[in-house]
Design goal:
Layout lengths: L1 H16 L37 E9 L6 E3 L9 E3 L8 H10 L4 E6 L5 H19 L4 E9 L5 E5 L6 H12 L14 H12 L6 E4 L17 H10 L4 E7 L33 H4 L4 H7 L5 E4 L20 E7 L3 H9 L3 E5 L5 E7 L6 E3 L3 E4 L3 E10 L15 E8 L16 E6 L5 E3 L2 E11 L3 E8 L20 E4 L2 E5 L6
Parallel strand pairs: 1-4, 4-5, 7-8, 8-9, 14-22
Antiparallel strand pairs: 1-10, 2-3, 5-6, 6-7, 10-11, 11-21, 12-13, 12-15, 15-19, 16-17, 16-20, 18-19, 20-21, 20-22
Helix pairs in contact: 2-3, 3-4, 5-6
């Protein structure tokens, strides 16, 4: 009886704090999310965004079409190979957009790549199809972008701001900086210095694009080791272009690699194609390891965010390793339904990611004792030393089955905190020893109101700058374990939210 009374009082207190969720966000993902066209046409000045009117919009920034070409060697070895349409991915951009809408996405990015001179294929063939796709599926905001064959790394998504000049802007980026663009190959293009020069140029643009590192540990030798991407390299990117190089894929695509065409499992299938350093609950080790690389970046105070994508090339029912955009993985951005504000949300970390539609809304707020100052995901709360900070978490656990025919439920939500101590002396650092789970919430410690789960934790007497972040799971693993070959991705679902920074403000003199 006492426990029920206690939960009842907590419920009453928490429900006062639960703000109304926009009607569009209350629809189950893929079954009722209604996207609308951009509010302003390219080149026209949009009205200032009212933050209160932003809502969670699901999207995918890593989607390939049949303009991700293969190559056919030339009979003349002095001439470049021929690009083969549909040689790497098979679906038209128009199909990708239509399937993105069907699976509940409000935005997506066309990200093709290929071999030498692919910039011309993108400019002259892919872009006109994107324009047609925008007309055919106006409910999905469709960004122009590419997957950069990244100098001294592997791949990264480039997202170009929507504008009348977007076609030429991306053409110049691919022509000038893509390491596979020239023929013969130019070794100077495959150096870290070349990539940093490219980032400096992008950062200097009036409306800079975004660059997000894709599948960062896919080439890693083992857990705790790294491959094409290293911690020092990503620090260099972020230092050089903090408004451009803003993050990495927390959960990579190709998550259907362990599924057979009939929906059964492939015994040798590896989630994400991660053969040597496996994903953990579907997430890259750089994100999933508590107190690991991502936490080391946040511990420096870096605004370095995570996303989640499909990396869609070919659907698993058609012999591929992929889900459709939005079918399994979603990156939710808190934004108005405009190109500019979605890009702003990605740039500033108003993002959470989820697999298998485990959740469809995650709101985290941090507020000071008086409640007047508050910050949300991606934001910063400044408080005086010794202040109490109240963390309110509200998560929507949607009813109904997901696109895998499963009706997942949130089993646990973790509140995680770490200290911010400034720049690391060791550029290769990949750990933050201060990071820890502050509290694990379950059905006994949260309050349910329909599909909404609400919970509160108070950080007492905060005297060091730091950050908080939230993750959750459908399972019972205290920490995400390495994914085994042949694992069914629908049975192991996680979500992660980007952090809120809590900064100790300097004392003012009397």
């Amino acid at each position: 009886m006492k426990q029920h009374q206690k939960l009842g009082r907590r419920a009453a207190a928490m429900l006062v704090l639960v703000s109304a969720i926009p009607a569009a966000a209350l629809a189950h993902p893929g079954h009722g999310v209604v996207a609308v066209p951009p509010a302003a046409k390219p080149g026209k000045t949009a009205s200032p965004i009212d933050p209160a009117k932003r809502q969670w919009l699901a999207g995918d920034h890593h989607v390939h079409s049949w303009y991700s070409a293969g190559t056919k060697p030339s009979d003349d070895p002095t001439k470049p190979p021929t690009l083969v349409k549909a040689g790497d991915a098979v679906n038209p951009i128009t199909t990708n957009a239509r399937m993105a809408k069907r699976h509940g996405l409000s935005w997506m990015v066309a990200t093709d790549h290929g071999g030498p001179n692919h910039s011309l294929m993108n400019r002259d063939e892919a872009y006109p199809e994107l324009v047609r796709s925008r007309r055919m599926t106006p409910d999905v905001l469709q960004f122009w972008g590419m997957e950069l064959d990244t100098p001294a790394a592997e791949h990264s998504s480039v997202i170009v701001p929507r504008s009348a000049g977007e076609r030429d802007a991306l053409y110049a980026i691919e022509r000038d900086y893509n390491r596979r663009e020239p023929w013969p190959a130019d070794p100077a293009r495959d150096t870290e210095g070349f990539m940093l020069d490219a980032l400096r140029q992008l950062e200097a643009q009036p409306k800079p694009p975004l660059v997000i590192a894709n599948h960062p540990s896919r080439t890693a030798r083992e857990v705790g080791a790294y491959g094409a991407y290293s911690p020092a390299e990503l620090r260099g990117w972020n230092d050089t272009a903090p408004q451009v190089a803003v993050g990495m894929e927390g959960a990579p695509g190709h998550q259907a690699a362990s599924l057979a065409a009939d929906g059964g499992v492939r015994a040798d299938g590896e989630r994400g194609g991660y053969s040597r350093a496996p994903t953990m609950g579907g997430f890259d080790q750089m994100t999933a390891r508590l107190g690991g690389f991502w936490d080391s970046m946040l511990g420096e105070g870096r605004r370095f965010w995570i996303t989640s994508t499909s990396d869609s090339h070919r659907h698993y029912t058609d012999g591929g390793h992929d889900f459709w955009p939005g079918e399994y993985s979603k990156t939710y951005v808190k934004a108005a339904r405009t190109y500019d504000d979605v890009l702003d949300g990605l740039r500033n970390g108003r993002v959470f990611v989820t697999l298998g539609d485990l959740v469809s809304a995650v709101d985290v707020t941090a507020s000071g004792a008086d409640g007047r100052q508050r910050a949300e995901i991606g934001g910063e709360l400044k408080v005086a030393a010794g202040s109490d900070v109240t963390i309110v978490i509200r998560v929507r656990d949607p009813k109904g089955v997901n696109f895998g025919g499963v009706s997942p439920e949130v089993a646990r939500i973790d509140l995680i905190a770490g200290d911010v101590t400034g720049p690391a002396a060791d550029r290769s650092q990949d750990s933050n020893s201060s990071t820890h789970v502050v509290q694990r919430f379950t059905s006994g410690t949260w309050v349910r109101d329909g599909q909404m789960l609400s919970m509160i934790h108070v950080l007492k007497d905060v005297r060091r700058s730091g950050y908080v972040r939230v993750r959750g799971t459908s399972g019972n693993e205290l920490e995400p374990l390495a994914d085994e070959r042949g694992e069914n991705p629908w049975t192991d679902l996680w979500f992660y939210a980007n952090p809120i920074f809590i900064t100790i403000a300097p004392a003012t003199s009397g």
